[in-house]
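re: that complex we talked abt at group meeting.

here r the seqs, copy pasted straight from the sheet so there may be weird spacing, ignore it
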Amino acid sequence: MPFTFSFYDFTGFTQWIDVTLRGACSPFWAVLWEMVIVGVLFLAFYAVVGLYLVYAERKVCAFIQNRVGPNRVGPYGFFQTIADLIKLLMKEIISIREADKLLFNLAPFIVIITSFLALAAIPFAKGLHPIDLNIGVFYVMAISSMGVVGILLAGWSSNSKYSLLGAMRSGAQIISYELSVGMSLIAICVLAGSMQLSTIVEGQRDLWFIFKGHFPAVTAFIIYMIAATAETNRGPFDLAEAESELAAGFHTEYSGIKFAFFFLAEYMNMFIVASLAATIFWGGWMPLHIPGLESFNHVMDFIPPVIWYVGKTVVIILIMMWFKWTFPRLRIDQLLNLEWKFLLPISLVNILIMAFIVLMGWQIGL
Amino acid sequence: MREIFNYFKSIFFALKSLWTGMKVTGAYFFKPWKIVTQQYPENRKKLKMYERTKGELVMPHNDKNEHQCTACGICQINCPNGTIEVKSVTVETADGKKKKALNKYIYNLGMCTFCGLCVKTCPSDAIVFSNKFEHAVFNKEKLVKTLNKEGSTLKKGAE
Amino acid sequence: MAEEIIIPEADNQEISINMGPQHPSTHGVLRLVLSLKGEMVQKVEPHCGYIHRGIEKMTESMTYQQIIHLTDRLDYLSAHMNNAAVCLAVEKALDIEVPERVKVIRTIMDELARIASHQLWWCSFGMDLGGLTCFFYGLRDREKILDIFEETTGSRLIQSFYCPGGLMADLNPNFQKKVKDFIVYFRKILPEYDELLSGNIIMMERAKGIGKMSKEDAISYGMTGPSGRGSGFSCDVRKHHPYHAYDKVKFNEVLRTEGDTYSRYMVRIDEMRESMNIIEQLIDNIPAGDFAVKMKPIIKLPEGEYYQRVEAARGEFGVYIISKGEKNPYRMKFRSPNFCNLSALDTLTRGHKIADLVAIGGSLDYVIPDIDR
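got the structure back, here u go
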């Protein structure tokens, strides 16, 4: 084993908190306190990441479009999104006549809670991993597909035809693209031999999976990027809120903080999808190791794993933003064609090839 | 077999065309010096409008507070929107002749469409367009302007 | 709920949606009433008149010089061409021959306006398809033309630069150099448009075979300009009834026969190249001379009826004047290209999806003030 990550290992730290709490109070209260700590940390994390992803998107699209972007609130417009959030918090929440009140109010919460839940399974660094489920990949997949329920409810309950059209588009889109996301992740699960995210990360100690798995891993990555962009309702696949066709799609009738929920959830979903891609294909918090180059690997180990994790996630988010600000939007039937005629068959064949490679033991670096 | 080949060919060309577009936007992302945005209120000092920019109608006065308007009213007739109102008084000159003189030149900026007919038809070049373009005011009464200054007189020899 | 809910037979269920007057892709205050079956458009009913200003009636109380500034406000993106139509009609009625210099300058200005208009169309077409970046690239390049306009005419959008008998002012000394610089710049930039949008697979999938219009239908609907030429209808007024200096320059009439959204798109892209060719031929040999003929202060057209058509950026723009020999026209009628192009929208979009309706609308490139007048 190469140089250990001992001084970047958070396991000791988290265990110390656990032991201290259990020593101070009963096990029930200890668990409750841990939940509160994790919850508060995640809420803060969620708000900061959500807001600054919005800021990043506005800056990135501005630079792509030869503009400056937000630059009035704070230096380089750094506090622009916070000002926006305050504005949204203070706006009136308009209640729609003839709308289904219960579902109308419930929908934003479903959307935001699902994106919140998915964060739980993401490994941020060694030891910084809220729940290390043995079916981590499956869990994230399952939770992120719940979000569409919120979108469908939002469209259905708004009593607006534009919203309904947007919601129906979104339903058809997410249900079909989930398959490709799942299939491309399964290809890597086959390579890793596990669905546990910590095992998957550990499995990339010598080399990342995208290099390890020959071209099927690269294909799986490309398919994952396309399908994940579609699943987060972004980029060329933002049919559910296509503003030139449906005004604002499923959230046409929402205002104030409820609109902000949809907005934040969209960006958080992008973050989750990107961090999953970083974890599964690019090794998560695992530094870049190349078999045979011991000194290089040693240097890489000095960079903290959190930096590796955030860096990889940011690169993938940038790629997704690049997609969004380059391509025109697809039409709904072309979207479904792309999934059922191209992505799904290719990813099915891809799994087969990957399984064959694993069976023959042809992975690079073994 | 042919179909399978075409299938992969279409995928290849699709990805290639997408990559062509991404190259364009990606190149601009890394060229911040190509940004064309003008930082308007900050660059106000340096901002130079073109000489002919039709900002608003003004009546130039020289340093002796003299203008060139003879109150003939041609601009008023030519204005398509009724923007200009020339109020004149009849004064008696030294040699006893009665003559029209300008009392008030009222210009309603809110109704002006900047067609330039008034400046073009003015026989004595009394009015011009200035480059000032910051017209925002809080009520529309402020857009009605009197162009001749207080106590100004007709320039000698401009009759 | 005690009321009985009647659910109509699912197959026959049509929903009607108001698209507009406030909608991002109607490019103004146009209201389209759509009948939808799912996503499929069954019928489109355009309701216009939201920005009706009664310009045709207003002209009856104005002199011919004053009318010019109203024509700017019809199709504000081809203001120069609209001005030219009235000026040419008046000059034809009075039998005035304008100096060569005026003709050449008018030609250059018209073509610059055409490029600017097509650039804005490209922006909004990209935006209709969902590619927002196109919008900013197009506007960035259009800004250079507007600067050229501002330097010479004093205004950026609605210039009122032509007057019966010539021009309002002479060219700015910088004009020639700036136009040449722009052409060098834009020849470099135009391939970028193709890379970003024209060659993009998503754009091609969305535009090819969508909104087909045969040549016969295009003629019977009176579709002119790039929309008509996309269907193979040779309708370029510059070619068939030359005015200005168009008979002295060499240029091709861009024609495409497919008649779909993509061909209308490509006609406009190619027209920008043709316009640059025309400008390049003229910019170095602007003849010296007066920029206007001396006209009487009050123009009275002899009694009669006069018609003049020009090729505006969106098609054939016509001015029809009935004069009773007074200083005001007795009746004035504008034949606006957008109104005729809009009338074909229903035929074009039947059986397509909402997303296609937006793309077809973008390819027709309507300007609402021109439709409503």
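couple things i noticed - DSSP finds 15 helices and no strands in chain A. Chain A touches chain B at residues 60, 63-68, 71, 322-323, 325-327, 342 (CB under 8 Å).
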